[in-house]
Amino acid sequence: MSANNAFHIAVLGGDGIGPEVMAPALEILRKIETKAGLSFRFTEAPAGAGHYRETGKSMPDSTIKLCEEADAILLGACGLPSVRYPDNTEIAPQIELRFHFDLYAGVRPARLIPGVPSPIVGADQRGIDLVVIRESTEGLFASMGKGVVTESEARETMVITRRTSQRLFDFSFRLAERRKARGRAGSLACVDKANVFKAFAFFREIFDETAKRYPGVKADRLYVDACSAFLVKRPWDFDVLVTENMFGDILSDLTAGLVGGLGMAPSADIGDRHAMFQPCHGTAPDIMGQGKANPTAMILSTAMMLDWLADKHGVESAAEAAERIELAVDKIYADGIKPTEFGGSNGTADIAKAVLAAL
Ligand code: ATP
């Protein structure tokens, strides 16, 4: 537990562009701490494909211990296509940490920042401001590393539990309530495939039971296939969506695409005690080492971290610092910054410098 607005942050830069986007994010936190009367202690630790290559482990036990002790975890991105386990899967300590710390609520906001081009016609007029909540500890990912492959077939099993679904839906309804209090629609859509799979009918049944306890939130139910089409045709009609792990993995990359790209989409993996904050994107090996990575998603993830710390520890100045970072990001895009990610000429350093100046 922190005292006097001091927070210990575990910093896992990871692989590829992970460390490249982490560096400016830490610089921004350093600048904001003085302004907001906060104090951060950053402890960097290894995790990812590089560490696996050297040691045969995705991360050392000391990294897990650090994450356990810290007030929050900041992660860049981990894994490289060229480094794989013997079963051909990639090194993914970020997924292991979700399981280890029971970070069941993957929060993936997609907000179209004015000035950022969206591929959706009309989005610049109508705006996009939605949140996908991806269950992050079970679903199809529950069989990670446990799939059975024989000469003639392969099987992976999906797991949905009442306990996790219940906590996930409570978290989602509370988020929809908080957004309603701030002027958003206050609606929550359960996204599943309940017309085909029993596991999803079970998921939806728990959603329906939970909805009765939140009469102030409009509860919707959608099948994932139809939902995908609606998200592309009229994303402005969505507020909060909650879904299973695999569906959330896919839909949250889709919603990141709606608001400019993976480099614009922050995320948080939240449990009852711990939380980890990282951009939606991966290590983007195609652009690593070229100064092209857009650090916006990482920077916005630090704002989500500050918001969570503010709420957990009752530190109002941390919430104000989060808002300050978001406003600074909004300002640089309104002023015309254009990342190479969507055809502009601004790389990591330009974007970082502009946010620092706008704080
Ligand atoms: P993962 O499976 O770990 O999510 P991935 O291989 O599916 O990773 P990413 O590493 O997220 O995908 O990258 C997909 C593409 O998006 C990259 O090839 C890169 O061109 C682009 N991209 C991702 N993040 C950024 C960023 N921050 N800035 C610029 N471009 C990015």
Could you describe the 3D structure shown?
- With 359 residues, the protein is α/β, with parallel strands linked by helices.
- The strands form two sheets. A ten-stranded mixed sheet has the order 2-1-3-12-11-4-5-10-8-9, with helices on both faces. The chain has a two-stranded antiparallel ribbon with strand order 6-7.
- The longest helix is centred in the middle third of the chain and has 20 residues, at 162-181.
- The protein has helices at residues 18-36, 49-55, 61-69, 93-100, 123-126, 162-181, 198-211, 224-233, 245-258, 296-313, 316-334, 348-358, and strands spanning 6-14, 39-44, 72-77, 105-111, 129-135, 148-149, 154-155, 187-192, 218-223, 240-243, 266-270, 275-279.
- Helices cover 43% and strands 18% of the residues.
- The protein folds into two domains: 1-104 and 273-359, Isopropylmalate Dehydrogenase, CATH 3.40.718.10; 118-259, 3-Layer(aba) Sandwich (Isopropylmalate Dehydrogenase).
- The protein contains twelve helices and twelve strands.
Question: TL;DR of this structure?
Answer:
By secondary structure, this protein is of the alpha/beta class. Helices cover 43% and strands 18% of the residues. The chain is built from twelve helices and twelve strands.
Radius of gyration: 20 Å
- What is the number of helices? 12
**Could you give the order of the helices and strands?**
EHEHHEHEHEEEHEHEHEHEEHHH
**How helical, in percent, are the residues?**
40-55%
Q: Which percent band covers the strand fraction?
A: 15-25%
Mean pLDDT: 96
